[in-house]
Amino acid sequence: MSNKSFEHVQSDQRMIVTIFEQNSNFTKSNFTLSGVLLLNGDQMSAWSEISLATFIWMALPFLFYGACSSLIALFTLRKHPYIIFVLLPFFITTILIPLSFGAPTSMILAYAVSSTDLSVSPAVCMVFGFLQTVIIFIVSTTRLHATL
């Protein structure tokens, strides 16, 4: 009896192995970063592709905003002896905010979109990324005004 159950388990294991060998046809993705940045890429349906495209389109406007605000601070305070202490927080937040806010929200948005099994164009990811950046600016401005 126990020998028969062992054969059954062993035959089930063979069946599982043969299932994986038969289903080894993976679809090849045509995802490229240039397609995302130039908005002419293929439709995306994988979670990793959507989250990366959304994160890129969130980080680029934020980096532009951080560079512009750093240049404005540099030119307006160019004669101040402690200018480095003003620019250093700008550079730090320009890197930390996209990593701490942009990456998780991009992943959550991508999960919500990919769970619907619909394909998404790079333009939709651009809209998601810009909306994330705008929301960061609104929250940051209202928090600044609330403390004043």
TrEMBL record:
InterPro entries per the UniProt record, alphabetical: TMEM170A/B/YPR153W-like
Pfam families in alphabetical order: Tmemb_170 (PF10190)
Keyword Iron: no
UniProt superkingdom: Eukaryota
Membrane spanning residue stretches: 50-75, 82-101, 121-139
Keyword Membrane: yes
Membrane topology: Multi-pass membrane protein
Location of the protein in the cell: Membrane
Main subcellular location of this protein, as a coarse class: membrane
Keywords tagged on the record: Membrane, Transmembrane, Transmembrane helix
GO CC annotation terms, alphabetical: membrane
PANTHER family on file: SD17342P (PTHR22779)
Family stated for the protein in its record: Belongs to the TMEM170 family.
Protein's name in the database: Uncharacterized protein
